[in-house]
């Protein structure tokens, strides 16, 4: 998903109402926790390297880390201090520097950006004022659209966590020794007994949401979708399975590739996922500054949509549609309801999913049995973003809110939808309805996939 979330004038009030039973004080506590969690993670990502690495551009695909840091503060100032709080602008002169639509990532190092210490002070100053506004903001039903159910505060927490994910991608792209560490995720307990695929029966289900208070505009509104029966992989495709595709000439046979994907393979000489290399007859990968053997039972990571699509064709299968993915993840046939998460309506815990940068890698296929959906599919939330076959398009009745540049300008055949989140995603920016999107060539993102077939 692009991290370039620059605001324009707020859209008209097309934001759907939230349930009247939501407790404003509970929402206030939730917003406070989400904002503090995001800021603690931002500090981890930016305090773990020297200032020279904050100002350097580690890849033309990504911004310097210091740009992300000040951009986080600038977005928070524009939406929480100015739009919600009605405060006078603190640093209006820097709005243009941190407008992501005005400056592509490759050009950002040449801008007169705030230095690391100044960026930290600015973001901290904004945050202190934002928390004062949160303490007094009316979050009740019927209030102003940005304040209703704490939406603006949830939006900013999600925005910061999305930038934390892009900063983690930058950490993966940087050279040199590891700056971040984390324990390994838990091992699966019953992976050997899991079926390779699950059957999702035909029928309608409710896709999207009109009730989730912090759902973003592209997740709305809830609507019925009819889905034909299909089979879906129980777990994401593993590195070991992907190596069989490679060993069978997957990167040298144009039969499996979309024309644009085959052009990409030839132009860049692709032979494996990003960050993999062959040494002494063994596949190794670089992961956050550490070189290690590729684990065969871990979901494959850092593959483009074209690579995922080619693997699926080689396997005699296909990528699931976005509707299929969401039905497998949310539909409960026992009640006919669509759940908030595969396991139910409760927020994620460490037993449900690999989220929040607790681990710096996906868990092995078959992990997190408590997080499985009624369909029987697992690891649908966390671990790896999963490419689908679908273009990023609006739902029927879509209304841009609070600004067009969040979703509306990205709709069309140029971007493919990813679902489910990765180990790099925080729970505030990941739910059963959350939609991610990116260009089909992208490989630096924490992307994997699972495959499907018609029933």
TrEMBL record:
Write out the catalysed reaction: gamma-L-glutamyl-L-cysteine + hercynine + O2 = gamma-L-glutamyl-hercynylcysteine S-oxide + H2O
Q: What pathway or pathways are given for this protein in its record?
A: Amino-acid biosynthesis; ergothioneine biosynthesis
Q: Where is the DinB-like domain?
A: 35-167
Q: Which residues bind Fe cation?
A: 71, 159, 163
Instruction: Name all Sulfatase-modifying factor enzyme-like domain ranges.
Output: 194-453
State the needed cofactors, names only. Fe(2+)
Residue stretches in coiled coil: none
Q: Sorted alphabetically, which keywords does the UniProt record give? A: Iron, Metal-binding, Monooxygenase, Oxidoreductase
A single GO molecular function, which one? iron ion binding
Output the SUPFAM superfamilies linked to this UniProt entry: C-type lectin-like (SSF56436), DinB/YfiT-like putative metalloenzymes (SSF109854)
Q: Which Pfam families match?
A: DinB_2, FGE-sulfatase
Gene3D superfamilies assigned to the protein according to its UniProt record, in alphabetical order: dinb family like domain, paralog of FGE (formylglycine-generating enzyme)
Q: Where does gamma-L-glutamyl-L-cysteine bind?
A: 105-108, 438, 442
Report the superkingdom from the record.
Bacteria
InterPro entries assigned to the protein according to its UniProt record, in alphabetical order: CTDL_fold, DinB-like, DinB/YfiT-like, EgtB, EgtB_Actinobacteria, Sulfatase_Mod_Factor_Kinase, SUMF_dom, SUMF_sf
Segments carrying the region annotation (Disordered) are: 1-24
Q: Known EC number(s)?
A: 1.14.99.50
Q: What does this protein do?
A: Catalyzes the oxidative sulfurization of hercynine (N-alpha,N-alpha,N-alpha-trimethyl-L-histidine) into hercynyl-gamma-L-glutamyl-L-cysteine sulfoxide, a step in the biosynthesis pathway of ergothioneine.
Q: Which family does it belong to?
A: Belongs to the EgtB family.
* Protein name from the UniProt record: Hercynine oxygenase
In its UniProt entry, the species of origin is given as Streptomyces microflavus (Streptomyces lipmanii)
The record's gene field reads: egtB
